[in-house]
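queue> pop job 88
queue> type: inverse folding (structure -> sequence)
queue> payload:
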């Protein structure tokens, strides 16, 4: 029985890419879907402290102690991707802090789910960083083993090589992507559920010229603003608050 679930992280866990204007910050996401199933089974209370754009240090500094104060018996955390996407990063330093955070979360006896990074085998943009992500993943696997945490192995989820599970910004999962991740998490927890496996969005097959045009549009509309935020020290999460800072039953 899971009495209280707390979700920590960045845009991945906040739910960006899964638009729902009726929910806090205008998104739903995989964590809400998991919480809905848990709430239906056991009346599980749910808090989501994740905020888009947060780097690993910010996730730890802003979210770990508040999560501990809530006394959860289930915690999910995925952090570090926003650090790895920077021009330079000290992954060993990141992992030292991550290791301490996972240890603290586990010290209270909670089940802690931790993600490996996605493999992005079909992305030329992310392909340039696959070496970084692979090293990050090995470090994550080690800290999971050291603390008796549970790994959600995003790296090996081949379904996400289909762009239909990704939003048009190519940075966040689409609604079907979030729905699929919810099933992956519940399966990893060994919990029965009746969530269907979602079909990916149908993306048109583009000619070379159409693909070139689409890439230029993506660079202008999504990559450019992302780079600008990096250069100006701003974040997509500036001014946002956690979606569910107080534990509640949703569904």
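queue> result:
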């Amino acid at each position: 029985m899971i009495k209280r679930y707390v979700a920590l992280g960045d845009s991945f866990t906040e739910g960006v890419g899964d638009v729902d204007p009726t929910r806090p910050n205008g998104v739903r996401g995989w964590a809400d879907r998991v919480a809905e199933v848990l709430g239906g089974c056991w009346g599980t209370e749910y808090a989501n402290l994740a905020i888009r754009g947060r780097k690993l240090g910010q996730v730890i500094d802003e979210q770990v102690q508040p999560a501990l104060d809530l006394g959860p018996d289930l915690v999910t955390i995925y952090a570090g991707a926003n650090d790895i996407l920077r021009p330079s990063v000290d992954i060993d330093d990141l992992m030292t802090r991550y290791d301490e955070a996972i240890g603290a979360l586990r010290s209270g006896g909670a089940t802690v789910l931790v993600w490996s990074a996605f493999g992005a085998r079909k992305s030329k943009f992310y392909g340039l960083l696959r070496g970084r992500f692979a090293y990050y993943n090995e470090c994550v696997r080690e800290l999971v083993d050291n603390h008796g945490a549970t790994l959600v192995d995003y790296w090996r989820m081949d379904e996400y090589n289909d762009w239909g599970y990704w939003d048009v910004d190519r940075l966040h999962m689409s609604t079907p992507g979030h729905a699929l991740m919810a099933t992956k998490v519940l399966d990893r927890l060994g919990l029965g559920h009746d969530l269907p496996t979602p079909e990916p969005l149908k993306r048109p097959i583009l000619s070379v010229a159409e693909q070139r045009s689409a890439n230029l549009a993506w660079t202008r509309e999504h990559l450019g603003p992302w780079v600008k935020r990096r250069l100006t020290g701003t974040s997509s999460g500036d001014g946002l608050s956690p979606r569910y800072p107080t534990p509640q039953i949703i569904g």
